[in-house]
Specification:
The protein is α+β, with helices and mostly antiparallel strands. The protein has eleven helices and 14 strands.
C-alpha cells in the first residue's frame, strides 16, 4: 500500500528564494496550459493533447524571451504541474459524464500567486536524493535540512515540497509501505462519534472532545482583530496575517496529533473496529457546523481505515441510516423518536441505556453481523426470491404422489 510520510524542512535564505522561483514557474506553466486549452475551446479548435500541450508551454516557451526563465528550474516539476492540470481535466470530464463517484468536480481554475499553499513535485526522474548527512538534495535548489521524525519504510517514488499558509516548509514522500500485521487479539469495538464526547466505545469508555478550535478561540479572535486593523498591502498586515495562519496551524496540528494517537491505540488494542458512516457534509450545514468541523471526524475515520489495512485489522462503516441510537441493544426494540437532548432512556423491556454507549453497542453488533465469513459470504445473507428454474415442490405434487 502507498502512504505519504511528511517531514519538516528548514531551507536557508537562498534555498527559500529558489523554492519561491520553483513555485512561481510551476504556477505559470499550469496557468499557461489552462489558458491554451480554454482559448482552443473558445475558438472551436480540437482539444489540445497532453503531448502537444507540453511541447508548447514548456519546450517552445523556454525559447521565447518572455518564458526563458523557465529553464532556471528543474524540468520535472514543470512536467508535474502539467500532469496536475491533465488530471484535473480528466476528473472534470469523468464527473460530468457520470463516471466518477462522489460530488461533482468543477473545471480547473487558474492558480494565484496569492494562494496561501504552494507546492511542487519531484519524481524519480528528477534524481532527488537523501544525502549521507540526512539532507534532501533537490535539483537546482540544493541540500535542504530535514527534521527526520521517523525512518522511511522504503525508497520514495516522489517527493512534494509544500509551503503552507504559516510559512512552514514540508517534504511529503510517497512510499510503498509493507503490511505489518499485529498479533491477533480477542477484543472488538464499536465506536459512536459525537460532540459531547468525541468517541464512545462499546466497552463503555468515553473519550472527551478536545475542542481545539474552541479552546484557541480567544487567541484567534485577538489575532484576527489585529489583522483587520492593518493597512492593505503593508508589511504589518503581512506579519499579522502570518500570525493568524500560525495560530490556525497550531490548532490543525493538535487535532491531527490527537486523531493519530487515538486511532493508533484503537487499532492496536482491537481486532475489529466499527464506526458509523456519518454524513459530515450534511451535518456541516446545520447550526452545529463549527463544532462538527472542529471535531475532525472524517480525518479520524480515514486514519482508522488505512491503519487497519496496514496492520491486519478489520474495519467497517455501518450504514448511516442504521438506527443505532433508537435501537435497544438488549431486546432489539426501536423507539419511535430519540431527540438529541435525550442522553439516557429506559426501554420497555426495563433496560436503562446511556444513549451513546447503547449506540456503540449496536454499531458493534451490526458490524459483526455484516462481516464476511470464511467463505466470503455475509454472516446474514439477504433474503432472495427463488428463481423459476430452481428446484422446488410443485403445487399439488404431494397430492399427486399419494393419489
Amino acid at each position: 500500500m502507498r502512504l505519504r510520510y511528511r517531514y519538516r524542512l528548514y531551507p536557508d535564505a537562498a534555498q527559500r528564494q529558489a523554492l519561491a522561483r520553483a513555485f512561481g514557474c510551476a504556477r505559470v506553466v499550469f496557468n499557461d496550459g489552462l489558458r491554451l486549452r480554454q482559448e482552443a475551446r473558445e475558438a472551436g479548435l480540437p482539444y489540445v493533447s497532453d503531448g502537444e500541450l507540453s511541447k508548447r508551454v514548456i519546450t517552445e516557451a523556454k525559447k521565447t524571451p518572455g518564458r526563458a526563465w523557465l529553464g532556471e528550474v528543474s524540468a520535472v516539476l514543470l512536467q508535474q504541474a502539467l500532469a496536475d492540470l491533465n488530471m484535473a481535466y480528466r476528473n472534470f470530464f469523468a464527473s460530468i459524464a457520470g463516471k466518477r463517484k462522489g460530488p461533482k468536480v468543477a473545471a480547473p481554475r487558474f492558480r494565484s500567486k496569492k494562494d496561501r499553499r504552494q507546492a511542487i513535485r519531484f519524481t524519480k526522474n528528477a534524481r532527488f536524493t537523501v544525502t549521507a548527512g540526512g539532507k534532501l538534495r533537490l535539483p537546482k535548489i540544493g541540500d535542504v535540512a530535514v527534521r527526520w521524525s521517523r525512518d522511511l519504510p522504503s525508497e520514495p517514488s516522489s517527493v512534494t515540497v509544500i509551503k503552507d499558509a504559516a510559512g512552514r516548509y514540508f517534504a511529503s514522500f510517497v512510499v510503498e509501505a509493507f503490511k505489518e500485521p499485529l498479533p491477533r487479539v480477542a477484543a472488538e469495538v464499536g465506536i459512536d462519534l459525537g460532540l459531547t464526547h468525541f468517541a464512545v466505545a462499546s466497552d463503555g469508555r468515553k473519550i472527551d472532545n478536545p475542542r481545539f478550535l474552541r479552546r484557541a478561540a480567544k487567541k484567534l479572535r485577538k489575532a484576527q482583530k489585529a489583522l483587520s486593523r492593518k493597512a492593505r498591502e503593508s508589511n504589518n498586515r503581512k506579519k499579522a496575517r502570518l500570525k493568524v495562519a500560525r495560530a490556525h496551524a497550531r490548532v490543525a496540528d493538535a487535532r491531527r496529533d490527537f486523531a493519530h494517537k487515538l486511532s493508533t491505540a484503537l487499532i492496536r488494542d482491537n481486532q475489529a473496529v466499527y464506526v458509523e458512516n456519518l454524513s459530515v457534509k450534511g451535518l456541516a450545514r446545520t447550526r452545529l457546523a463549527k463544532s462538527v468541523h472542529d471535531a475532525g471526524w472524517s480525518q479520524f475515520v480515514t486514519m482508522l481505515e488505512y491503519k487497519a489495512a496496514r496492520y491486519g485489522r478489520t474495519f467497517a462503516k455501518i450504514d448511516r441510516w442504521f438506527p443505532s441510537s433508537k435501537l435497544c441493544s438488549a431486546c432489539g426494540t426501536v423507539a419511535e423518536s430519540m431527540p438529541l437532548n435525550v442522553r439516557s432512556w429506559i426501554c420497555a423491556c426495563g433496560t436503562a441505556h446511556d444513549r451513546d454507549v447503547n449506540a456503540a453497542l449496536n454499531i458493534l453488533a451490526a458490524g459483526r453481523a455484516d462481516r464476511l465469513n470464511a467463505r466470503g459470504d455475509p454472516v446474514r445473507p439477504p433474503l432472495e426470491v427463488a428463481r423459476v428454474d430452481e428446484a422446488g415442490s410443485l403445487r399439488g405434487a404431494a397430492r399427486c404422489g399419494t393419489g
